Amino acid sequence: MANRGGNSASRAGGSAGTGSNRTCQFKLVLLGESAVGKSSLVLRFVKGQFHEYQESTIGAAFLTQTVCLDDATVKFEIWDTAGQERYHSLAPMYYRGAQAAIVVYDITNQDSFQKAKNWVKELQRQASPNIVMALAGNKADMANKRTVEYEEAQAYAEDNALLFMETSAKTSMNVNDIFMAIAKKLPIGPPPGQPQDTVDVNQPAQQQKSGTCCK
């Protein structure tokens, strides 16, 4: 497992001075076939960078990033999983207890879209019943080579109650937007002063509840 560090600065919208001082911590996992650009999406979101030749993830990599909503700051604990088949059996370790997932496919690779559907089915069967799932059609900058039509993926996403966007880690198209859309669907909980389940963001992740987690 690689740990590529993280970045506590928000790049996904809002301003640090406008939200409340509540911080909500959520586990998010990225799943998808190898070489669809999962690591590139995370690198673009967390560090604002893109590398044309990204090394394959071994096992999983862990990063963090925060986004600011109107009433809270959302801290994502991001697990970027390896897409190679030999690592498939490890995936439940990473999506177990996750409150959000992004399933990624390559719009120029029809097979990667079919594999994405398999991941969605697995999450529907084994992940938390309240998990927020998004489908990302990556490599939108290569639309001239697409084999998966936007309308096909959008219809599938609607049928399965998934958030859906086409993204490009290379140009940053919709990268911040998809994380922000997920943040807005997560259970932030009631405003300060009203009863709520609280979690200390300094606790180890395995000790935290999987529901609302604001402090």
Structure explained in plain terms:
- The protein is of the alpha/beta class.
- The protein has one domain (22-184): Rossmann fold (3-Layer(aba) Sandwich).
- Helices cover 25% and strands 22% of the residues.
- The chain has five helices and seven strands, in the order E-E-H-E-E-H-E-H-E-H-E-H.
- A seven-stranded mixed sheet has the order 1-3-4-2-5-6-7, sandwiched between helices.
- Strand 3 and strand 4 (73-81) form a beta hairpin.
- The longest helix is centred in the middle third of the chain and has 17 residues, at 110-126.
- The protein is globular, with a radius of gyration of 16 Å.
- The two termini are 29 Å apart.
- Mean pLDDT is 83; it is low at 1-19 and 196-213.
Give a quick summary of the entry.
By secondary structure, the chain is α/β, with parallel strands linked by helices. It contains 5 helices and 7 strands; from the N terminus they run E-E-H-E-E-H-E-H-E-H-E-H.
